[in-house]
Amino acid sequence: MKRVFFVMAFVAVAFSAMAQIEVRWGSADVRYPVDCATNVSDRAQNSVTAWRGERVNLQLVVENGAEENTVEYSFSDLECGNSVIPASNVVGGFVQPVLTDRFTGCGRHEVDAYGEVPVADRITATNPAILDADSRRGLWLTVQVPQDVKPGTYKGYVELACDGKKTKHKYTVKVLGHTLPAPKDWAFHLDLWQNPYAVARVHNVELWSKEHFDVLRPYMLKLASGGQKAITATLIDRPWDGQTYDPFGSMVTWVRKADGTWWYDFTIFDRWVEFMMSCGIDKEITCFSMIPWKLSFRYYDQATHSHKYIECAPGDEAYAQFWGGMLSAFAAHLKEKGWFEKTFISMDERSLQQMQAAIKVIKDYAPGMKISMAGNYHPEIEADIYDYCLDIFAYGAYTPELVAKRREQGKVSTYYTCCSAEYPNLFTFSAPADAEFIALEALAKDLDGYLRWAYNSWTVTPEEDSRFTAWPAGDTYVIYPFCLSSIRWERLVQGIQQFEKYRILLAEAKAKGNTSRVKALGKLLKTIDVAKIAADSGKMVNGFRNGLNAM
Fold first, then answer.
1. On the chain, which terminus has fewer CB atoms closer than 10 Å, C or N?
2. First vs last C-alpha separation in the chain
3. Which residue in 412, 414, 436, 410 sits closest to 425, CA to CA?
4. CB neighbours of 390 closer than 8 A, spacing ≥ 6?
C-alpha cells in the first residue's frame, strides 16, 4: 500500500558503544520494520496535545546493534508545576511483529497464498524485552489524561535500561481546557462483534464457567473503554455457518419436548448479557440471527435425546412456526428482565426478500421488537430497521434528509467495512492512521458510528500470524490474546475521540451563536476525504486533529 510520510531530522541517543542501542522519538503513524536495514521516513514527535479525559499516543523507536540485548522501560509522572499526571496513566509496550499479507479482497484461499510479511502491530506487556541483533522495535505509549487535571504543559520521560546503562527520553503533553466525557457517554455508536468462544479456546477454560467470565472481563472492559455500545448475542448455533476459526454457538437452548411443544432456556443468554452490562456495555443487545448463512436450525429433541436440524427459509410456513413460538417466549422473557427496549433481532447481509419475510414474522409474534441490519440499502424496509448499517460501498444511499429523519426518530445510521474495502480498514497491513480515519469518515458523512464484524475472532495463533483463509490479514480481530492491545485499536479509539471533540465544539459554537466557529469547523471537516486516503491518511487525520486542538 502506497503511503507518503513527512521526514524530520532527529538525534539518536546511544546507550554505549558496547550496548549498541540507539533510541529516538518516532511517529505513531508508522509501523516500524523489524529489520534495521530497512529505511524509514517518519515525523519525529515527542509532544502531543490533548483535552482533559483524552487518550493520546506516542512512539519511541529503539534500534539494536549486532548483538542481542535486553531492554527495560519505565514511565515517569508527567508534571506541570504542582499538577501531576501519574505514571500509572501511561501504558504501552514494545510493538511486536505478526505475519501479514496484502489486500486480497474476499474469498477463501490458502493462508500463505498472498505472501508472508512481518508487520508491527501487537503491543506487548513484556518488560524487560529481548531485542534480537540488528532489530528495530517501536515502544508505544498511550497517555490517559485525567478529566480533572489542570490545563498546562506536562513534562515527563521514558527511561530505558540496558546493560547497566539508563537513558531518559523526554516528552510533553499539552493539556487544553476542554474536557472529553467518559467513554460510556460518547455519542459515537461503536459496534465491534465479540466472540466469547475464541476466548474460551485461547485461555483453555470451560465455556461459560466462572473462569471463562473472569478471563473475558479485561477484554470487555477494554472494549467499553472505546465507547462500545452493543452486546453481540447469538440465538442459534453457527449464525455465520462457522466462518471463524472459533464458531459461534447458541446462547439459547432450543428444546422440542416429547409432547411436541417447545421450551427455550435463556440461562446462558442472561448470564452473558448481565456480564457485559457489568463491564459497561449496555445500550443494545444485538441478537443473531433469524436468517443465518445456512438455513438450517439446530435444536434438542427430547423424544430421541439427540440434536436435530430443521431446514426452512423465510417465507415458509415451517419457518414462521419455528421462529414464532421462540420470538413470543423471547419477547416475554426480555420484558420480564427489563431488556425489551434495547434488544434487537439482527441480520447480516441478507436479501430484501428474506428480510421482508423475517420482518413479518417478528411483527406477528413479537410486536414492537426492534430490528437491526448490516448490509445493502433497501428503501422498502428502511422504516422497519431501527439500527441500519450500510457497507462503505453502499452508504451513499444515506442522504442528508434520510439521516436527519432517522435521527429524529431515534434510529441509528452507521457504516461498516469488511474484506471488500482496501481502505480505510483495520487490516494488520493497514496504515495506522487509517484506523483513526474510520471515525472521521462517519463524521464527514454525518453518520452515527461504525460497525465491524470482529473484535476478537482469532486465528489459530493470532499473536504470531494474523492471516486467515478467507480474508486479508487482520480482518478477524483488532485485539490480541491476553488482552494485549494493537496499533489498530489505539488509533481507532483516537479517531472516535476526535469525533466526540468535533461534536462538542460544534454544539458549543451553535449554542453561542458563533457563526465563524461553525464555518471554521465545517471547513475543517471538508478536509476529510476518503478519495484521498490512499495518498497519506496520516497527513489528513493529523491535520484534522491539530485543527480541532487549535479551536
1. N
2. 33
3. 436
4. 374, 375, 376, 377, 397, 398, 413, 414, 415, 416
Residue type, 98: V
- Contact indicator for 473, 429 with CB cutoff of 8 Å: yes
Cα–Cα nearest to 348, from 371, 376, 374: 374
* Cis peptide bond upstream of 239, omega within 30: no
Positive/negative CA dihedral, 468, 474, 478, 483: positive
Quote the cell numbers at residue 391: 457497507
317-363 pLDDT, tens digit each: 999 999 999 999 999 999 999 999 999 999 999 999 999 999 999 99
User: If you compute the radius of gyration of the chain from its CA atoms, what whole number of angstroms results?
Assistant: 25
Cell triple for 79: 508534571
Residue identified by cell 485543527 is 547
For the chain, which domains are there? Answer: 13-178 (2.60.40.10), 188-251+262-295+315-486 (3.20.20)
Please enumerate, as own/partner, the contacts of 419-425 that have beta carbons within 8 Å and a separation of 24 or more.
419/104, 419/105, 419/106, 419/470, 419/471, 419/472, 419/475, 420/105, 420/106, 420/391, 420/393, 421/392, 421/393, 422/1, 422/103, 423/1, 423/533, 423/534, 423/537, 424/530, 424/533, 424/537, 425/472
Three-state secondary structure call for residue 141: strand
Rounded CA gap, 7 and 23, in Å?
17
pLDDT in tens, 301-330: 999 999 999 999 999 999 999 999 999 999
Q: What number of other Cβ atoms are within 10 A of residue 100's Cβ?
A: 24
The pLDDT value given to residue 2:
38
Q: pLDDT tier at 111 (50, 70, 90 boundaries)?
A: confident
Enter the pTM of the model.
0.95
- Distance CA(494)–CA(140), nearest Å, equals 14
In 10 A of CB 473, how many CB atoms? 28
What's the mean pLDDT when you consider all of the chain?
A: 94
Q: Could you tell me the three cell numbers for 420?
A: 471488500
Task: Give dist(CA 387, CA 415) in Å, integer.
Answer: 11
| Residues 24, 60: Cα–Cα separation, whole Å | 6
Mean pLDDT of 407-422: 96
Cα angle vertex 474, ends 469, 478, to 5°? 135
Spatial separation of the C-alpha atoms in residues 28 and 25, rounded to whole Å? 10
How far is it, in rounded angstroms, from Cα 220 to Cα 398? 31
